[in-house]
Amino acid sequence: xxxxxxxxxxxxxxxxxxxxxxxxxxxxxxxxxxxxxxxxxxxxxxxxxxxxxxxxxxxxxxxxxxxxxxxxxxxxxxxxxxxxxxxxxxxxxxxxxxxxxxxxxxxxxxxxxxxxxxxxxxxxxxxxxxxxxxxxxxxxxxxxxxxxxxxxxxxxxxxxxxxxxxxxxxxxxxxxxxxxxxxxxxxxxxxxxxxxxxxxxxxxxxxxxxxxxxxxxxxxxxxxxxxxxxxxxxxxxxxxxxxxxxxxxxxxxxxxxxxxxxxxxxxxxxxxxxxxxxxxxxxxxxxxxxxxxxxxxxxxxxxxxxxxxxxxxxxxxxxxxxxxxxxxxxxxxxxxxxxxxxxxxxxxxxxxxxxxxxxxxxxxxxxxxxxxxxxxxxxxxxxxxxxxxxxxxxxxxxxxxxxxxxxxxxxxxxxxxxxxxxxxxxxxxxxxxxxxxxxxxxxxxxxxxxxxxxxxxxxxxxxxxxx
Amino acid sequence: xxxxxxxxxxxxxxxxxxxxxxxxxxxxxxxxxxxxxxxxxxxxxxxxxxxxxxxxxxxxxxxxxxxxxxxxxxxxxxxxxxxxxxxxxxxxxxxxxxxxxxxxxxxxxxxxxxxxxxxxxxxxxxxxxxxxxxxxxxxxxxxxxxxxxxxxxxxxxxxxxxxxxxxxxxxxxxxxxxxxxxxxxxxxxxxxxxxxxxxxxxxxxxxxxxxxxxxxxxxxxxxxxxxxxxxxxxxxxxxxxxxxxxxxxxxxxxxxxxxxxxxxxxxxxxxxxxxxxxxxxxxxxxxxxxxxxxxxxxxxxxxxxxxxxxxxxxxxxxxxxxxxxxxxxxxxxxxxxxxxxxxxxxxxxxxxxxxxxxxxxxxxxxxxxxxxxxxxxxxxxxxxxxxxxxxxxxxxxxxxxxxxxxxxxxxxxxxxxxxxxxxxxxxxxxxxxxxxxxxxxxxxxxxxxxxxxxxxxxxxxxxxxxx
Lengths: 467, 467
Fold this sequence. Notes:
Two copies of one chain form a homodimer.
Chain A: H1 2-12, E1 17-19, H2 26-44, E2 55-57, H3 61-65, E3 70-73, H4 79-92, E4 98-101, H5 108-111, E5 121-126, E6 135-140, H6 146-158, E7 162-165, H7 175-191, H8 197-205, H9 209-212, H10 221-228, H11 247-261, H12 266-287, H13 291-305, E8 317-323, H14 337-355, H15 359-363, E9 366-377, E10 386-396, E11 400-409, E12 415-427, E13 432-433, H16 438-451
Parallel strand pairs in A: 1-2, 3-4, 4-5, 6-7
Antiparallel strand pairs in A: 5-6, 8-10, 9-12, 10-11, 11-12, 12-13
Helix pairs in contact in A: 1-2, 2-12, 12-13
């Protein structure tokens, strides 16, 4: 799962990946994970994703690592196994290839012992699902070169992650030390029959767990000291000992877990997990806090790298495609009407981006604002629909841009909805209508001229209630 | 803070509250918390909140508890103090009043020792911010009556909480046992200078912390056993001992925490916390999982209790008011155009609700769908604006309903935007236009007749680009 998650993150960020996994079902698992990741990224961002990198399953470790920039080992947590794999990868890879291990607890100094170039090795410990959670703990061993850590920090940041350099080499690094403490206490509570696994989960997810995704407000160490400092001396916990994992305890936990899952499949739970994580990441992005700041930085990079709007001869432009996410459904079981306008507005944004309205243009104070919209709802969208919008310029002058959008379900000729919009170019420093800059104006004129030969849509110029 | 949070949750759920707090700044603190809670609830739900309960600050404990249904003690965590307060409350309250304590760790059997009616006492331990986090741990002592626990469960569920009954009386109940284990490990990491408080926070909030709000996918005990079971025997943690809270350690933590806060005030951090929590709760509601299921259940209760749409003589109806939330701002720094349509659609929903389209009507297969909208954008909304929408019926027949909405900033005569909409009544079982049910049709006719004397809006009947 960790290896497949890495592959998905790299491929969706435009990196070519070669994957070696001797397990017979590796191809199926990685295809499933990649499909989940694609679906999550579609909902995660409207920034233009790069063209996907290639994903090639290969038959040997040597074939996987030859000539690559970065090796990411994600084998089971057995020291000897990992040590052998890393030494073999080191022998087959180029001298300047970075070699990383996904281990969640083994020390890098132990792992790099058999390597010829230990200075190029470090731990890069991710969290599942790797394609959505931004954290990657970086930890070098005694023989790791400092510039290998720096290089890894840049590489992982470029695929939307938050590298956290663990400065002191300890077993479990930081995150799993904390996780293990929590779970160990939970294990005692189950063993002593104080609580079931479901009750323990509820004690977290309805309360403090809601805050741990951002640690805002009075979370953090200072508050903890105030609230718990004196209580630390109280004999609350049984942390002085490790509960014995007897067959009875393992069985009790497994039974309670199965009752909680209630027959939902693991894949289904993973998709639910991804949908919720996507919304959390978007919520945090609005405030540019925690993982939302990482997402915002990644999106800004994508926007700069983004390709200009496609052109389509003298036919209407096809500027915007996406899938209708599940949370667009309203209490009637339908897609809320404001989402139709959102789709059209996204197409307008794509048009303006293609015409050259970029960050720099906005920064000097020019932009188009929508002043009027006429929407026609013809047929209904459903959750999961793949849709696209075509865009035709009906007219323009130095300030105005008159466009007509049509929304289609992919592969169907009948439109779902139409939108006619009048945009006005505004000098945002004064808030008044003002002519577009010359270079923008020329591109608008050129597109208007090209679209003049496209038949005028039947619904253009229509008022509400007219036939 | 906890007492003020309780007051806010009860008041916003329509309960009258009497609050006794001897601290001189109590009135200011509770007013600030209530204002934050109001702002959070406005963004949390579109369901009709009940009229606020009253909030009265009183001068004695006796005055606070006399004749109330529920007493909620939230004094500092000192056993003697709480025991005395609870005994005094017990003497002054009615015999059937429920008496609860917010203690995060003291045992109910100890707390109820001096009470005359210990059977009516239990612990109800909430989490900050009390008005947003749904968890409340309920724990009775040796002399608590089982039906007091049941009664408390219903009372707290009715104000939107998730009561978790702790079946075995232990110090720290469930949540704080788990929290303390986590923080204790964190304290060791700071004391040993392995990591700073900021690095520890990052190890949580960029990774597993994002999942703890819902514990979806492979979270939970079974996965833990698979991943950590064998490692439990490894000597990772230093949990066998309590780190001594020396002056140096306290100072180091305080300094690191201040650096993290970077000069942001506590109130500001609290507002950020609330905004993020609101979005998390909404994200979870979409999936009706965890705290989102609690929110959905609470909203369904509010909808049933909701009042019918107000009428306004023969003038346009004023059906919808709200504040523009901060996350409606797009990359231009303005409110995204689709949000204007969302406001108008919310006004349409309020109109339809007022006309009698309720859950029962929808269930038998009738509803109005929007088929056309003409929007005019006249002036710009800003984040934080308080706005309202007026709604005028321009015409109707047995299937069609033609309305005109105008959006205003409160207190200003100039409109911000207008929307003309044509709605069509649909039989949702066939998906075809069909006449409205007789009782609905009569109310539509009555409203259309009343609005016939209202002047027709200047922008009605307008097509895009016409003058």
